[in-house]
Automatic annotation (TrEMBL):
PANTHER family: QUERCETIN 2,3-DIOXYGENASE. Residues 13-118 form the Pirin N-terminal domain. Residues 149-238 form the Quercetin 2,3-dioxygenase C-terminal cupin domain. Belongs to the pirin family. The lineage of its organism: Bacteria, Bacillati, Bacillota, Bacilli, Bacillales. This is Pimeloyl-CoA dehydrogenase. SUPFAM superfamilies: RmlC-like cupins (SSF51182). InterPro entries: Pirin, Pirin_N_dom, Quercetinase_C, RmlC-like_jellyroll, RmlC_Cupin_sf.
Length: 239
């Protein structure tokens, strides 16, 4: 089954220099029919104006992913972590038993645009931990690059979460294929451009800000379909 959620269906807020787009119930936005998708609890896109951001707040037993699309995002927390995240960097924090954290735009002139995703951890109450990885456009061009994933290795998530996240930049007409297992789900999000998804369920065109929620076994083909350049997409395989 493939369900398309368009950019227009997201919940939009503007508050003190922060523009937010929520794909699921979040904060003051409540929709009992749209609370999560598998282990993915939140998929938010933010734009922070210069010198704006979020004050420290407390979270526990969440794995939070930051993926910067434009600008430079500053992350800091009560565990002594201070990071400046730029496009081509992914940051993962397993909040475990609890973390006070904040994200801000320290620039006086440029906006920051980024994705923040929340996942259920494999185990509650673990010690807080961080993971940071870097990748290039060349590594993602017409390829599904696993920017975080389960198991061991350079790109593994802290305290192994059963999720693999891919990033891809597709030239128009180029295709990628993927076999989704019967017991897995997939969340596909278009950052820019347009992507055509083909499977036994049909053909679906999704554009910037749109998402596809896919369940059960599928043989999938993703094709870049933009008339104005390349298309960038994030693909998450999860339980």
């Amino acid at each position: 089954m493939i369900k398309i959620m368009t950019a227009a269906e997201r919940h939009t807020t503007h508050d003190d220099g922060i523009h937010s787009e929520f794909s699921f119930s979040f904060g003051d936005y409540t929709d009992p029919h749209n609370e999560h998708f598998g282990s993915l609890l939140a998929h938010n896109e933010y734009v922070l104006k210069p010198m704006e951001g979020f004050d420290r707040r407390f979270h526990h037993d969440l794995v939070i992913v930051h993926l910067v699309l434009e600008g430079k995002l500053t992350y800091e927390d009560d565990k002594g972590k201070f990071m400046e995240l730029t496009p081509g960097t992914i940051h993962v924090v397993n909040t475990g038993s609890g973390v006070y954290h904040a994200e801000n735009n320290a620039s006086s002139s440029e906006d920051v645009r980024y994705l923040e995703m929340w996942f259920l951890p494999a185990e509650p109450g673990l010690e807080a931990s961080h993971h940071q990885g870097d990748f290039t456009q060349a590594q993602r061009l017409n390829q599904m690059l696993p920017i975080i994933g389960s198991g061991d290795g350079e790109r593994s998530l802290p305290q192994s979460l059963d999720v693999v996240m891919y990033s891809s930049i597709l030239e128009t007409g180029k295709e990628l294929t993927y076999s989704l297992s019967e017991d897995r789900r997939m969340h596909v999000y278009v950052i820019s451009g347009q992507v055509e998804i083909s499977s036994e369920d049909g053909v679906f065109d999704i554009s910037s800000g749109d998402a596809a929620r896919i369940q059960r076994r599928h043989e999938l083909t993703f094709q870049g379909n933009s008339s104005e350049g390349n298309s960038e997409v994030v693909i998450i395989d999860m339980p």
